[in-house]
Amino acid sequence: MFVHNKRLQYTVRVAGPNPGLANLMLEQFGGPQGELAAACRYFTQAVAEDDPGRKDLLFDIATEELSHLEVIGSIVAMLNKGAKGQLAEAVESEAELYRSLTGGGNDSHTTALLYGGGPALTNSAGVPWTAAYIDTIGEPTADLRSNIAAEARAKIVYERLINVTDDPGIRDALGFLMTREIAHQQSFEKALYSMTPNFPPGKLPGDARFTNVYFNMSQGEGDARGPWNSDDNFKFVSDRDAQQAIDGGGEASVKLTGDEQKLLRQLAERTASDPTSDPMTGAELGMGGELAAGREADSTAREPSGR
Amino acid sequence: MFVHNKRLQYTVRVAGPNPGLANLMLEQFGGPQGELAAACRYFTQAVAEDDPGRKDLLFDIATEELSHLEVIGSIVAMLNKGAKGQLAEAVESEAELYRSLTGGGNDSHTTALLYGGGPALTNSAGVPWTAAYIDTIGEPTADLRSNIAAEARAKIVYERLINVTDDPGIRDALGFLMTREIAHQQSFEKALYSMTPNFPPGKLPGDARFTNVYFNMSQGEGDARGPWNSDDNFKFVSDRDAQQAIDGGGEASVKLTGDEQKLLRQLAERTASDPTSDPMTGAELGMGGELAAGREADSTAREPSGR
Amino acid sequence: MFVHNKRLQYTVRVAGPNPGLANLMLEQFGGPQGELAAACRYFTQAVAEDDPGRKDLLFDIATEELSHLEVIGSIVAMLNKGAKGQLAEAVESEAELYRSLTGGGNDSHTTALLYGGGPALTNSAGVPWTAAYIDTIGEPTADLRSNIAAEARAKIVYERLINVTDDPGIRDALGFLMTREIAHQQSFEKALYSMTPNFPPGKLPGDARFTNVYFNMSQGEGDARGPWNSDDNFKFVSDRDAQQAIDGGGEASVKLTGDEQKLLRQLAERTASDPTSDPMTGAELGMGGELAAGREADSTAREPSGR
Amino acid sequence: MFVHNKRLQYTVRVAGPNPGLANLMLEQFGGPQGELAAACRYFTQAVAEDDPGRKDLLFDIATEELSHLEVIGSIVAMLNKGAKGQLAEAVESEAELYRSLTGGGNDSHTTALLYGGGPALTNSAGVPWTAAYIDTIGEPTADLRSNIAAEARAKIVYERLINVTDDPGIRDALGFLMTREIAHQQSFEKALYSMTPNFPPGKLPGDARFTNVYFNMSQGEGDARGPWNSDDNFKFVSDRDAQQAIDGGGEASVKLTGDEQKLLRQLAERTASDPTSDPMTGAELGMGGELAAGREADSTAREPSGR
Amino acid sequence: MFVHNKRLQYTVRVAGPNPGLANLMLEQFGGPQGELAAACRYFTQAVAEDDPGRKDLLFDIATEELSHLEVIGSIVAMLNKGAKGQLAEAVESEAELYRSLTGGGNDSHTTALLYGGGPALTNSAGVPWTAAYIDTIGEPTADLRSNIAAEARAKIVYERLINVTDDPGIRDALGFLMTREIAHQQSFEKALYSMTPNFPPGKLPGDARFTNVYFNMSQGEGDARGPWNSDDNFKFVSDRDAQQAIDGGGEASVKLTGDEQKLLRQLAERTASDPTSDPMTGAELGMGGELAAGREADSTAREPSGR
Amino acid sequence: MFVHNKRLQYTVRVAGPNPGLANLMLEQFGGPQGELAAACRYFTQAVAEDDPGRKDLLFDIATEELSHLEVIGSIVAMLNKGAKGQLAEAVESEAELYRSLTGGGNDSHTTALLYGGGPALTNSAGVPWTAAYIDTIGEPTADLRSNIAAEARAKIVYERLINVTDDPGIRDALGFLMTREIAHQQSFEKALYSMTPNFPPGKLPGDARFTNVYFNMSQGEGDARGPWNSDDNFKFVSDRDAQQAIDGGGEASVKLTGDEQKLLRQLAERTASDPTSDPMTGAELGMGGELAAGREADSTAREPSGR
User: Fold this and answer.
1) Is B190 close to F281, i.e. CB distance below 8 A?
2) Which residue among B81, B277, D14, F43 is least crowded, i.e. fewest CB within 10 A of its CB?
3) Which residues of C touch B217 (CB under 8 A)?
4) pTM assigned to the model
5) Which residues on C lie below 8 Å from B270 (Cβ)?
6) How far, in Å, are C233, D160, D184, D191, E255 from residue C197 at the CA level?
7) Which residues of C165-189 are buried (b: 16+ CB within 10 A; e: fewer)?
């Protein structure tokens, strides 16, 4: 069960209202790499997990991410505090209000009009948060890797947000949030590697013929080698013929009953294209002028002999 | 530039039509962990990448994933071949066709009605593919971790699909596709670790005060310790007071101009809730009968004295 | 800040695994009227709210909804516990596993394949949760009404879920959750009516000419009267002419500069349709046979005289 | 059946083109609180409704909302009339056109490029309208409350749009539209309260033990009391222990067969995390430099003694 | 199988970085009329197609569209090259970086923050690409028409992009891409008309009574005639009565069993609205002041006599 | 302005309740090719159109599609009438209700639970309708082609629905609706061809060097020729070298300032991958057992000599 204490995990001191900056901050509130995504990711894993260590870890971090969601949401709310009053009370002239609403050069206008300056569960482009961002699949060697990657991404987005802010209070809070992603990544790494083995993920082994093959699919100037496709680690296949139809055939087939075949033949006949025709088309009709006229004459002329 | 050769990378031999199974296979065609997601993920990274080794690697694997998309799409098309003919030519009785359409016990009906049995860019629940599945953020230490995780997830979904199929041709092709995810994961791992250092991701260092702290946010029976929160690796904080307002305050504030404050006060007054009232509500009106009548009398009675 | 205690707010006792039922329960986990939606709705309002009473109320209920999310998620996890083991360990024959996966007659197959039996943030059709479900707009007289309505909807969906379950442990937990929606609705009602006045919402008054007019837009057998359109409460307008162009004109116009007008004229000429023509069309080309031949002759014939 | 008369329900007189303002107006065309949402909400309820009074009411208002959609769409079209010509005929220099396209400071560029200046079914951030905005659930005591709330939200968004416009013709039309939302809200209120009882919504009563309990989940400075949690109206529960595991247990359980248990044990063993290990991790590999070297030495050193 | 050659299909020469322009270009990368949509549209058709000519055509063009996706993606990457370095290395002051990020007047800020300047699979408003853009339905006479229309739309969006750019290298590359859409449209037209007949699409004929009827549903000043509703081509129906209930009845009915009827009656009674009541409503409670007081008195007064 | 008459445009006579069939019918209510999509498509074009003939045509057909939406919605409501009563009144045993809810073998369970049996704006898989289905771009030669294609697709989906129904009343109504799509397609064709010229769409001509070139991008067994790539109509390019870098270079470049170059070099160095390394990776750590041990020894050994 969750409970809530009024104090934030980290203090939010904002130097002054700035709806444009608020809008950028939404990236970590309702954006794909933001705190709601993090909390939902770990929470859904925690609820389904049976391993006691991982279950506890996931609940710990899910809960902290919810608290971070509150911190970043509070930053957004503070930055919009001025706009909130202006829009609701409308004491400025309309023209000024319009300018202040759209002057930020980004999507803060939507936050204002649609959400009244509150922290919206959207990213900085106004796109509503979607659970399609969550990549939990219910298998720990995959999910922990997903969590490690998610923490890495969140760290970077915080870094970028810090880079565009000179408000010291916001930078301080963002620095805390960014650092916690580093800590979380380390915990998830420990949890992953405390499972032995954890690679390849899951239960089924790979097919040994293909596990260490590297297909050089993109060729030309710029082809490069490195440990990711070195002869030490991989069988490197550049020959185009050896890249396709690896097991021989290279075709797709299905066994059909006689009835099924008959129906498909009937469908094929009904919808056959005639490769020997040269039909007049809508495009030619649409060209207008002499071009089409010529083509039309043409087509009429060809009729008797061809079709 | 991409070019296409008619032969598949791996042969598809399907034992017989099965629209229900086709629908499950869509998970790796238009699902979140499927081949379109993989191809788009690596392709978008490749186009933006400047490091020659990674750029080449990303194009190699993006191209192979496109070829896998074709393999899994061909499996879907083969499995739906019977349904395609039946629906288009409609020679069965309507009732039989209805039964065959909805008998699969899953969403194959949508594939048939809406997509005519073709491979649709949806998952097995009929949800259209969305680029919200793509987590590319344009930073290699994060993106490579995302790729590693994505390969792990795709491997697991292939494993699950293999587990629900007894068609040997399909199992063979899925086994190839699953194995290639293992190979790709290994390449991305090599690429990640050939960047030194790669942790923490990005450029800004963490704040040393918080990098190795573990907040035990979820407490009670089931609390667990392990390397992810051990005293060797982390400062373990269980005290609820030490978890909040870490830097002292714990509040959110913003500096406002006098005008801004005035407007907000005005807004606050206009929308104040009166904590001393006990207003009649719509719910009480809606209860009907004596209950509401009593309440209404009550409320009328209270009017003179209170409000 | 949020903290988590290991015990659930309400005990979950499930009589036995049932993936089909688990899938239905997702409606209140990741569905539009479910607990994540509720928690997000109130949390976003709480963060932005300045009125002390409402702010506290919103945090209280947001937090409880998160705890409900955990309860319903735990029900889903328990119901899927059997499927989780079967799919991951794959000891059944593939054919049996396929049957058990798709036999539920609903979308439990997606939950299994894609989410490994974990509680997914989707509704019962597999549609990912989206913040488009959240209707917070940052104005309390509107948001509180939205909350009242949301609680009413959630109550109904719980009622429906109770109606399709005979597992007494699940019915018990769902009964608790359903009842809490009733309690929450009452609190939100009190909060709404403790604002005076709260109607019309917002600050701007309506235009008195149109505030109590009822337009009878749908006419014919079935036209009905009641307090919602009675003469006591509304001016009832049935006359079709009086319903349109209420203020006279009824047209849309904009003042354009000469340059703008010139460009639009040029565009109009370039894209004008010729109402006096009777052009041959793609559809006619496509009809084939005599029909099209006749039309083509026709068209050719008409050419000299008309175009 | 719907029919259409050429005259608008209300006249649209726009003082001059303004693509930026047009973009803001989209909020009520294709936004979540806009007219398409309103029309779809009431129309879907009307079609399913059996009560003659409500059915008629819903069709009346659905139809009027469609007519409002036309009014707001016409405003958008008029505001974009200049941009439409410029973009299609491209007589300005490219640089000027670029500036005029992106100078609005909001998403009008997307409207221009993608929709050619026509009214698009998106909100002001360019997000396509989705039926996820519609909260119809097919139960009148819930749906009418949803309608009441929806009208309140729409009223507020109109109010905000009026506040950012000084074009008198637009303000006039928006004022009409805003007022109609007030009228509609009153009709829906009358319809709700003409059902007796209408609370609690639906058929199942709540569990009397929990109907009037208020859980004080968020505590600390700022805790507040009011009619929404007063002792008169609710049993107020602040004790953390009394808030959790209300019915005793607080755990989640499911009865499994022996086979199911065996599989889950097998899965648990296969994927167990070892809490006593301190594995080297990818993060440590990735730190590079002395740090990682030390850790690697460490780990090698520890190998013999520990694992 | 797809393979990749390093050289682009067409050279990309960008005069200088311009994140705002990059953002507009996204329309053809991850927008609804863009190259990913085109490639996916034709690829999904190709995989399912059985007609040898169309199958080959669809693979040819799908592959070319993928190559165009690479060209437009490369334009985006080049235009963002400056921003990429600035954001990652953060050597400017934060305030300057903020200005450069949000100064474009469009959504380039999201591309920078969230995608690091890489080409994102979104449109110019930041909306993620969705397979809902793909209208493939698996029937060639419909799909080919969809393809013709899609090429026409893509041509127009390229034309608009050319109109807002004065960078000669970009204009050159866009000109190539635009022209290819014209070529593709011509190929699809030929493919459509080489099927005889191709109209009406599909197998079932229309009902001859309604195939050539035109209902004049929108009437008033502006009513127009042309070949699309001329007496030569259509039976023109303007009479409102003749437009509705064309086959007589005009009602919706379903045969129900006695049990079903009984349940529905029970539901109807339970949820009946009372048209003779004039209930006090939440809106009236919410009006406050004398108005509500009067109404409340009223309502109390009416109680004895009416309810 | 829209007005509504109570009688349907076409009578709906349903033989008996059938929630599974109702769910399939949703395809034409809230599906991508359904009536809401059609109405919105034409309505948005109508509002923006300036040509009097097309404007009138578009309003006529938009209005008729709304009336069709009502017809198909009424079919859905009738088919769900039985389920509506059962779910709301819950007189069956829970187990029976569960069976009836999930026995349809498709997504009717979601319609019941979430929408109470009402017609929902989703497709048959439960996916909410989205304006992403609408391809209006505000240019008539493109939009009319889109409309033609849309009518063709809708015709096919109706044909498929007719094929799975044996209820004569439903078949009759669907037959009417299907036929109207044929009529509408003919009108849109006439409107397209009454614009001269209408090809290529838009204003800019294509680049004559590329307008009639066909790139044979997909090669191998199955290569085919036809009028869509014949030598009569196109210059056919099969040579792989002639397909790429058509204008010579084939590379992407941008001119950067010295500062920009410096930053990018710095970024490149910071994030360089070392192609000569062979780093130990997380995957190797994760393999466990001897394999990883060997690798670890290896890596340690290599340290002194190489890095």
Assistant:
1) yes
2) B277
3) 2-4
4) 0.94
5) 203
6) 20, 19, 18, 21, 49
7) bbbebbbbbbbbbbbbbbbbbbbbb
Q: Which site among B156, B267, B273, B285 would you substitute to test the C interface, given the most C Cβ atoms closer than 10 Å to its Cβ? A: B273
Span D43-72, pLDDT tens digits:
999 999 999 999 999 999 999 999 999 999
Q: What kind and span of H or E run contains B165?
A: none
Residues of E in contact with F8 (CB under 8 A): 244-245, 250-252
**DSSP per-residue codes, C148-164:** HHHHHHHHHHHHHHHHT
Element (H, E) at E134: none
Whole-angstrom distance, CA of residue C47 vs CA of residue A119? 8
Contact status, residue F236 vs residue F216, Cβ threshold 8 Å: yes
Question: CA B145 to CA A144: how far, in whole Å?
Answer: 11
DSSP F226-279: -TTT-TTT-EEE--HHHHSSTTS---EEE---HHHHHHHHHHHHHT---TT---
Contacts for B159 with CB less than 8 Å, ≥ 6 apart: A202, A203, A204, B178
State chain B's maximal CA–CA distance in angstroms.
Answer: 88
- Contact call for residues D161 and D220 (beta carbons, < 8 A): no
Closest-CA distance, E66 to chain B, in angstroms, reads 7
- Taking CA atoms, what residue in F is nearest to A194? F286
Question: Residue A282, SS3?
Answer: helix
Give how far C13 is from chain E: nearest CA, Å: 32
CA neighbor of D245 nearest in space, from C73, C9, C13, C67: C9
Please tell me which of the candidates D157, D222, D284 has its beta carbon nearest to residue A6. D222
Instruction: Return d(Cα F94, Cα F100) in angstroms, integer.
Output: 10
Question: What does the DSSP assignment read for B277-307?
Answer: -----HHHHHH-HHHHHHHHHHHHHHHHHH-
Partners of C193 on chain B (C-beta within 8 Å) are 277, 279-282
Indicate yes or no: CB of A194 within 8 angstroms of CB of D279.
yes
Q: ipTM of this model?
A: 0.93
Half-sphere exposure of D124 (CA within 13 A, CB side): 28
Question: Does the distance separating the beta carbons of B113 and F160 come in below 8 Å?
Answer: yes
Task: Give CA–CA dist C46/C67, Å, rounded.
Answer: 17
**Does D294 have pLDDT greater than 60?**
no
Convert the pLDDT of each residue in A116-171 to its tens digit.
989 999 999 999 999 999 999 999 999 999 999 999 999 999 999 999 999 999 99
Tokens of C255: 């003042």
Q: How far apart are CA C145 and CA D160, in angstroms?
A: 18
For residue A16, report the phi and psi dihedrals to the nearest 5 degrees: 175, 160
Residue E151 has pLDDT above 80, yes or no: yes
- Count other Cβ atoms within 10 Å, centred on residue B221: 9
Best CA proximity match to C174, nearest among C25, C274, C294? C25
- Please give, rounded to a whole number of angstroms, the shortest distance from the CA of A92 to a CA of chain F: 33
Residues forming beta bridges with residue D218, ordered by sequence position: A4
Query: Which chain B residues touch E282 with a CB distance below 8 Å?
Result: 281-282, 285
- Which residues face A215 on adjacent strands? A237
Say if the Cβ atoms of E272 and D7 lie within 8 Å. Answer: no
- 8 A C-beta contact, residue B84 and residue E97: no
CA C168 to chain F, closest CA, distance in angstroms equals 11
Cα E213 from chain centroid (whole Å)? 29
pLDDT digits (tens, 9 = 90+) for B137-188: 999 999 999 999 999 999 999 999 999 999 999 999 999 999 999 999 999 9
For the stretch F207-258, pLDDT in tens is 999 999 999 999 999 999 999 999 999 999 999 999 999 998 999 999 999 9
Look at the alpha carbons of F125, F127, F128, F134 in this order and tell me if their dihedral is positive or negative. Answer: negative
